[in-house]
Amino acid sequence: MRIKRISFVIFPILLVVFILACLYLYIANQQDAYVSRVLKHDMVRAEAQSFRQLPLVTVDDSNTGAQYLAPYLSDPRLTEKVFKHDLILLVNQSKLPFQVRVINAWLSSPNFTDGNAVVFATYRNGLGQIRNLQILQDFAVPHYPMKH
User: Fold this and answer.
1) Which residues of 117-126 are buried (b: 16+ CB within 10 A; e: fewer)?
2) Using an 8 Å Cβ cutoff, are 29 and 131 in contact?
3) Less Cβ around it within 10 Å: N or C end of the chain?
4) pTM for the model
5) Segment (H or E) for 108
6) How far apart (Å, rounded) are the C-alpha atoms in residues 122 and 47?
7) Please, which residues have CB within 8 angstroms of residue 43's CB and are 6 or more apart in sequence?
8) Distances (CA, A) of 144 to 48, 56, 67, 70, 90
9) 24-43: per-residue pLDDT in tens?
């Protein structure tokens, strides 16, 4: 009889704890998705700004033999400096309810046609946790015609 009473008390308590844990994980996951979505939007804008600020280099197209100008993305320190600065400015201007701290960000493109933007960031979510985000986004390197 005593075991039955104890199980009637413990089972509802465990059920409530389980439901609260699931709700906690769901809220944290939703906040991560929201911050990632806003950060990706800011990344696209920062990429466009960075492309205008980086020096241009002449690139030979191996398929057509044509030459064009493209942003210089082979120097990771330069792209980190420009892209990270642009991204931090955009993140600080965005209306996120969380303070996002960009730890590192850079652009890379080995072949001057396709590239990657990489961002490592942290933020404190609404539940008090410090969350880490790593975002990798592909982009097409803009090509500008040669002026003769």
Assistant:
1) bbbebebebe
2) no
3) C
4) 0.79
5) strand 100-108
6) 20
7) 87, 105, 117, 119, 135, 137
8) 14, 9, 9, 6, 25
9) 999 989 999 999 999 999 99
